[in-house]
Fold:
Amino acid sequence: MASPMASPMSAGSFLAALKAEGLTVVEVGDWEHHNRNHKGPWGPVHGVMIHHTVTKGSAHTVKLCRDGYASLPGPLCHGVITKDGRVHLVGYGRANHAGLGDDDVLRAVIAEKALPHDNESNTDGNRHFYGFECENLGDGQDPWPAVQLEAIEKAAAAVCRRHGWTERSVIGHLEWQPGKVDPRGFTMASMRGRIRDRLK
Structure:
């Protein structure tokens, strides 16, 4: 049973968990201390959120997710999963990835129950979710290489394994915030199935 008051892992534990799951991890700069903690709390954590980047090119994607842009400063996630299946750690702590979402969805994630339809944006997701941005144009045409999908599965499973969560603690951005479509090109139901099988 998931703990309703899970403290975030330390940066070192996060790194170790990803490596223990068999991932190739790239540490980008001073990622352990790059965060938005001055803007609000980080934790308790309740789940993992998967996004697509709407970008092309791994180096550009990693830099954008680390630095952000004028209207949305970085980090924009904790890990960037590029098409080659590597996980680039760009920040740790509060990150600008989830934004405001549905409190009913958060309650379902905490209870590890089926997700309701997201129809509100009233709850701070940056506080409660680990975030992985996945390199993809998000147009429904850009392919998802098998090695990248496997890395998404492993990264999410690594966090769930460390916290004692099931696959129901993993959601897509589109399941959290009305109007979002990411990740596009695979279903979160299929990804949760893969994570469930990995955690067995």
